[in-house]
Design a protein that fits this description.
The protein has 79 residues and is mostly beta strands. The chain has one helix and three strands, in the order αβββ. It is 5% helix and 35% strand.
């Protein structure tokens, strides 16, 4: 997560991957066991500014969407 005011400042970095291949559609395809983000959409349109839809590639064969809800407070041990 980058700072809103200073995007060059990293506020939080997860120690674990945010996306991992779990579903069969993510594990089987042109290149199996691969997921990668391709776009992100902040959901202000539904009154949820802390919710993001993350569109991602699934095994180079499909596009999926994952939901990310940003907590009010980020853990302090994420850097």
């Amino acid at each position: 997560m980058l700072s809103e005011q200073l995007p060059q400042v990293i506020r939080f970095r997860s120690r674990q991957p945010v996306l991992i291949p779990e579903l069969s559609q993510e594990r089987q395809g042109i290149v199996g066991n691969v997921v990668f983000p391709t776009g992100i959409d902040r959901r202000d349109d539904i009154g949820s500014p802390d919710r993001y839809d993350v569109y991602y590639g699934m095994a180079d064969d499909r596009i999926g969407v994952a939901r990310l809800d940003v907590p009010e407070h980020l853990p302090s041990d994420g850097l």
